[in-house]
Fold these 2 entries.
Entry 1:
Amino acid sequence: MAGSGMEHLRNPSEVLIRVENLVMEFPVGKTGLKVHAVSDVSIDAKAGETLGLVGESGCGKSTTGKAIMQLPRPTSGRVLYAGTDLTKLSGPDLRQTRPEMQMIFQDPISSLNPRRRVSEIVSEPLWIWANNRNPPGPKAVLARTMLLGVAGIWALLGVVAVLLGPAVLGDDAEVPARVLAFLNAAIEASVVFAIAQMAGSRNRKSPIAASVYAAWSLFRLLLLIAFGGGLTVWTSLIGAATLAAIVAAALVVSSRTEINALSEHIDAKVRQALEDVGIDPEAAWDRRPHEFSGGQCQRICIARSLVLDPKVIICDEPVSALDVSVQAQILNLLEDMKARYNLTLVFIAHDLAVVKNVSDRVAVMYLGKMCEVAPPDDLYANPAHPYTAALLSSIPVPDPRLKPTDENVLGGEIPSPIAPPSGCRFRTRCPRAQDMCAQVEPKMRQIGFGHYVACHFPLDSTGPKPGAAQLAANRAARVAPQRVAMPKAPGAQSF
């Protein structure tokens, strides 16, 4: 157990996600030591498949999921998405894959911005990618270019005011006058640059901001003409920048039809996503995360991950922070979304009972290493490794007449990932460990159809081994899982 190898990986042409020899290490301050969080892990998932990733807390499950997303980039190894190695992509190229790979984080409360409303949280990805999917029209492009030019002129005026004060402000320009002129130019440059960014991203508030700035610029121009003291280099430059800003602002205002159309399209998509996850858009639209329960916040997180129509979602323990009744709702929801959006899921959890209900394939991890990979029914019926058997035996049975047994109970503590054991990392807690386990690291090997284990001395199983036909039938049965009926209290309201 706790070994390496890639024998369990399928043909690269058959899978959507393929992780090869993934290593993730973190330095321990300035000691020169490293935390070996993930060591030589290899997994894959076909399109439309759910891969369950299970293990104790601290085994590297979440780190593996984040490394797949390149958050952060792995120390070594390859992460192939649709045949493309994400670890080799540069910033702009990697960014283009982000919409197709999303993540649902473990804590739904902390992953939502407490200062933003639900409509803003869910729509933010769409606004960020609006220019990529719906390029702005010529008016918006010209307006942004002109505004950036005006911001540059104001920045130049600030520098000129400091370096050439008397020449442009007049011979009597003292230091305070130069400083005041510089601050005024800096503020103007910052405001114009902000409006340019809003116009470039087609923010729905950009026409309002542009209108207010155009009115202020026109008012300042009139004051300059009336009390400017004649035509000077300084007043000429300010006048030119003001006229250009007014024209650019007029272009922004004239493109409000395009902005409104995009805003309506995004709002419709957000409403659809919220409805798909069981949240009433009208009731939740202007509310903030603290006004929702944990289950409702997790639904909002799922909606946010769906609005960009991704192909892969990494679910990092999405139900671990929720009570049992809400867990059933979220699991049912994930199954519905998987079927509706044709998603590929990597479902990370430490609860094997939960993983069995949602997964097409299960991979077990221990201390940063892969232990066993198998279809869920085969894994639960015939665990081949002592660690997998111990995890399964730890699942509580809701029957008070059954007395817990000491069978498959693990002793000792998990070794430190800073100095993991040699050979098999599980050997310090394994009841079947021998000298060989300390000297040779086990490799993944096949012991049944689709069943692989990394152990020198796997458990003997007397149970029947399911064949390809039975596994296919089991997988088809899970396409429409049994629904968990959740009673609703009288007068309760859903959001």
Entry 2:
Amino acid sequence: MSLAVEKSSIPGFLEIKIVGAPGHTALVSLLTKLEAMLATDAFFGLLVDARDAEFPEGRSYSREAWEDTLTILNSIPIAYLKPANFEADREVVIRAVIHEWEADVAFFTEREPAEAWCREQCAARSA
């Protein structure tokens, strides 16, 4: 399992790459780091590439992980590249959390449309 953060080729965005099964401790550590970076205006959006992620069968972990994430990152746009094995019922749970938080999160299966969406967020912010 790994959670890697790097600067995106899209100005103002960071990219998070998730590989394997992300544990709660690693997620909390990452969110703490992102919260500090967000406070310094180091970025204003995220591109999360979870195509190689693996998730436990229970949906409660996904709900908790998204709630933790949106507690800190609710104010920014997030493009989420879904894992290949992303089940419809898991997506329903996550979309419900996103709706509750009124977050700006878009789901994608391919990188090109995700990057285009991120660029649109940049343009809207600049306007």
